[in-house]
Amino acid sequence: MLLGFVILYLLVSVGVGIYAATRVHNARDYIAAGRSLPLYIVMAMVFATWFGAETVLGIPATFMEEDLGGLISDPFGAALCLVLFGLFFARKLYRMNLLTIADYYRERYDRRVEVITGIAIALSYLGWVSAQITALGLVFNVLSDGQISQAQGILIGASVVLMYTLYGGMWSVALTTFIQMIVIVLGLLYIAWLVAGMTGGVAPVIEHAAANDKFHFWPELNAVALVAFISGLITMGFGSIPQQDVFQRANASKNENVAVWGTVAGGVAYFLFAAVPLFLAYSANLIDPALTARWLAEDSQKLLPELVKGHLPLFAQVIFYGALLSVIMSTASGTLLAPSVTISENVLKGFLTHHKPLSEQNLLRLTRWVVACFSVLVTLYALWALGENAGIHEMVENAYKVTLVVAFVPLVAGLYWARANTAGAYLAIGMGLVTWLSLEAIAPEGDMPPHFAGFLMSLTGMLLGSLLFTRMPGRKVSEKT
């Protein structure tokens, strides 16, 4: 019966996505929803897209195994990214009337920088989207009592997300995520109320966590620990700023003020509400210690779903799994669309329009083909990661390393430093990428995290290139109102 309710919910989501396709008339509608979305929709999209499988399953699993310091990248770094983007990037980028974030690199530097950063941005989504698809596979596996393997569940989940993202694009994401945000918030608050009744309230859970030193957050006062702490924070805090999904939500706003405050409000809401899954998962220590010990030993990501399935009534299980599916699908649809748009607009379009401009309809058709192809790639990556036993939180955290070392510094320098030029962008990308990949091969577990070293060398490359090669100026971009 529970699985039947879940299937019904999936069919409704697909139906909403197909309805959204009726609003898509050209590529700009598909990619940016006509730049017409109000504040509450933008906030809902930001919140629902970032409140993904890692927030409900991955982050609590990491917290159970480690402590609060293990969550420095997400939710702390993730919320920092959204607030920073809203305050310092959204207004400037919105005024430029771009279609994708990678368009900025072409406007500010040149076509080569656009292609390289576009590919880096697209590749960074492999881990994030795959984490959502992996979580869908886990849900189907738990709901079917193992009758559906996690690999089979991955295939089912990927097919569902593809169906309602393929045709509706950003309109589909906007409408479904607004509905899904309501389900997420009300559903998880209801489950938290039930669980609090089983633990004697919120205070006993907090006291138990404090007694077991789970709220330890700050690093030790030594260079190695501090560097690890800072690198964990900026991996998502900085690395996810030059991302198409963040830009796309701000860019779909009806005006620049909505772009700014919708993103900031979504980031604050994400940070505050991320505490709810932590409370739910840790409550298992008080409700069923044996269940907790079992799943911490086998797969800590299954602890919360198994707790709900084993200790809450059917109605509550339906609410929880509906909220969980909303969490996963809202993130999966948005993060599937974002890299596909980047590949079609910033990589393929330039090669295909070398002799003849690409019409809006042909660009729309191309983008849909890329969405389909990227979904296949994501599914294969998710199946590979499943075989490697990669955790959902780890998959998401690793996704942003490539954009941190390749795309972040050229974006910030281009917006806020007048002397930033194309030579600086080349050196920033080259030095950052080579340093990161070299250290990943030589010393992946060294005292200096490879991606943090890559970030520092990217910054160095921008400074050297811009100051030494003044004959390769960057372009002055105009802000179109």
Question: Explain this structure to me?
Answer:
The protein is mainly α and about 475 residues long. The protein has one domain: Sodium/glucose cotransporter (Up-down Bundle). Helices cover about 80% and strands about 0% of the residues. The longest helix is centred in the last third of the chain and has 39 residues. The protein is globular and about 70 Å long.
What can be said about this structure in brief?
This protein has helices at about 1-20, 25-30, 40-50, 55-65, 70-90, 90-95, 100-110, 110-145, 150-165, 170-200, 200-210, 225-235, 245-250, 255-275, 275-280, 285, 290-300, 305-310, 315-350, 360-385, 390-400, 400-405, 410-415, 420-440, 450-470. By secondary structure, the protein is mainly α. Helix 5 (about 70-90) packs antiparallel against helix 14 (about 255-275) and helix 8 crosses helix 9.
How would you summarize the topology of this molecule?
Layout lengths: L1 H19 L6 H6 L6 H12 L2 H13 L6 H17 L1 H6 L5 H8 L2 H33 L6 H17 L2 H31 L2 H10 L11 H15 L6 H8 L4 H18 L1 H8 L1 H4 L1 H10 L4 H9 L2 H39 L7 H28 L4 H8 L1 H6 L1 H9 L5 H21 L7 H19 L13
Helix pairs in contact: 1-9, 1-10, 1-19, 3-10, 3-13, 3-14, 3-19, 4-15, 4-21, 5-12, 5-14, 7-8, 8-9, 8-19, 8-20, 8-21, 9-19, 9-20, 10-15, 10-19, 13-14, 19-20, 23-25, 24-25
